[in-house]
Design a protein that fits this description.
Elements lengths: L4 E5 L5 E2 L15 E5 L35 E2 L4 H7 L3 E2 L3 E6 L5 H12 L5 E5 L4 H10 L7 E5 L3 H11 L3 E5 L16 H18 L2 E7 L11 H5 L2 E6 L6 E9 L7 E7 L2 E4 L3 H5 L10 E8 L2 E13 L7 E4 L3 H15 L6 E7 L11 H13 L7 E3 L2 E2 L5 E2 L4 H10 L4 E5 L13 E5 L2 H8 L1
Parallel strand pairs: 6-10, 6-11, 7-8, 7-9, 9-10, 15-19, 17-18, 19-22, 22-23
Antiparallel strand pairs: 1-2, 1-3, 4-5, 11-12, 12-13, 13-14, 15-16, 16-18, 20-21
Helix pairs in contact: 8-9, 9-11
């Protein structure tokens, strides 16, 4: 009998009966891949492997559901607890993604040392043997007496081990190596990743086990597999950073139990990952105070204010089409700010190549950094230095006006704590904000006033 073939979109998980160049659901191009369909049993149900069965539930009226709060526990790493929203939640499914070699397995193995003091942990690895994990644990000084190791890739064997040991925490490294032998598709395929994640979700919700799943990312920087995989889990954490640099940033892209876009900062050392409790100091370390093209702003990462240094370099172009290169900043936003600077600020920057960089591997997404980027552009263009004791906060509109930003009080407190004496902000906050002690506020209405006050 000929095997039926389905097609899946790797971006949204939409199923199609035939291949297409563009997904009709999410409109993404070149994301449709071929995948054999699940085989059917005699009663018409798709065959599955040994998954953790859940008792059949019946609908309940909302007032019949017992009220309560999530049971949280500390992982032993404050930066990870911060990103999770105050600690790991019992019965949650957490997906930790990142590039190979960035430190995902190291982070998961390090928290085992603290978790094993009050809980039983089962560490399942499909990429390393038990001996390899033991050697890495000794290097990281992990001595968990309640830590059990299992080198297995078959889903049924993993479920049997969970039912036998009944751990409080389950760590799977990685979801791409796990497969269900009842499915005809190969390991790491879309159907296998979805099926294994569904089985792990049943384990988490049915038995109240906290499950951490490690997932690799593709070349686009997203979790390898369909986007529906991220919708299935409770929390999605991305481990970011360059392998050549020692600092790592853990970012929450989705969290059902806490704030999103929260970050935790770590430093990779010989003995493992070390927490960085003051990321602003780390990001500003080595900042030049006598060089043009650099400016400091304060961005909100979740509920945490973080100082970031944005750098810009403008040079006359040698081609008809100026080059725009951005690292850690939205290139489309950068081109918009260049156009505003030329039209409203009077600087002819359109004929220059523009290079933008955010120091420390931080990705700046909120518009509160617009004014800092505008001043960095102007500083590089005019070759004049921005004062080293000045921090800048403000959103820039297309007419050159400055708009207010949220959580300004927390930003000013962080700016003052890091030793800055001056802060430029929109005039919008003139009547609503008192000037903090030791911090002089420079209020401006538009980018022309900002350029006149600083450069």
């Amino acid at each position: 009998m000929k095997t039926k073939v389905l097609f899946y979109c790797t971006e949204c998980g939409n199923e199609l009966a035939k291949w297409a160049g563009q997904c009709p659901a999410c409109r993404a191009w070149n994301t449709i891949v071929e995948q054999p369909a699940q085989s059917k049993s005699k009663n018409g149900a798709a065959t599955r492997g040994n998954t953790a069965g859940m008792a059949r539930s019946t609908p309940k009226r909302m007032d019949e559901v017992p009220a309560g709060t999530e049971l949280r526990f500390q992982t032993g790493m404050q930066e990870l607890d911060r990103v999770l929203g105050g600690g790991a939640v019992q019965g949650s499914l957490v997906l930790v993604g990142g590039a190979p070699g960035i430190g995902k397995s190291t982070l998961m193995l390090q928290i085992c040392d603290s978790l094993c003091r009050f809980a039983t942990v089962l560490y399942v690895s499909g990429e390393e043997s038990e001996r390899q994990i033991k050697l890495r644990a000794e290097r990281l000084n992990v001595r968990g007496e309640s830590l059990y190791l299992l080198a297995e890739t078959e889903l049924g064997d993993v479920v049997e081990a969970v039912n036998e040991r009944k751990p409080d925490v389950l760590i799977v490294d990685s979801i791409q190596t796990l497969y269900n032998s009842a499915l005809p598709s190969p390991p790491a395929s879309i159907a296998q990743v979805k099926d294994c994640t569904m089985a792990l979700m049943q384990i988490a919700k049915g038995q109240g086990i906290t499950v951490f799943v490690i997932g690799h990312v593709n070349k686009e920087g997203s979790i390898a597999g369909p986007k529906v995989l991220e919708h299935m889990v409770d929390c999605v954490l991305y481990f970011e950073g360059e392998r050549q640099h020692s600092y790592r940033i853990l970012r929450a892209a989705k969290n059902r139990y806490g704030a999103t876009n929260e970050i935790g900062v770590f430093e990779m050392e010989d003995s493992g990952l070390a927490e960085v409790p003051n990321p602003s100091e780390m990001l500003l370390a080595g900042r030049p105070t006598d060089a043009p093209g650099t400016c400091v702003t304060c961005v909100m990462e979740g509920v945490r204010p973080v100082l970031a240094e944005v750098q810009a370099l403008l040079v006359p172009t040698a081609s008809h089409i100026p080059r725009r290169t951005a690292n850690g900043f939205d290139p489309n936003r950068a081109m918009l700010l260049l156009a505003v600077l030329e039209k409203r600020g009077g600087l002819l920057v359109g004929s220059c190549d523009a290079y933008i960089n955010v120091i420390g591997g931080l990705t700046v997404e909120e518009p509160a950094a617009d004014l800092a980027m505008i001043l960095a552009f102007a500083s590089s263009f005019r070759d004049k230095v921005i004062p080293g004791d000045l921090a800048v906060v403000g959103e820039v509109g297309l007419t050159g006006e400055l708009r207010s930003v949220q959580a300004l009080g927390q930003r000013l407190s962080e700016i003052q704590r890091m030793g800055f004496t001056k802060c430029m902000l929109p005039m919008e906050h003139n009547k609503r904000l008192a000037e903090p002690d030791g911090l002089h506020l420079i209020r401006v209405r538009n980018i022309r006033e900002a350029l006149a006050a600083i450069l």
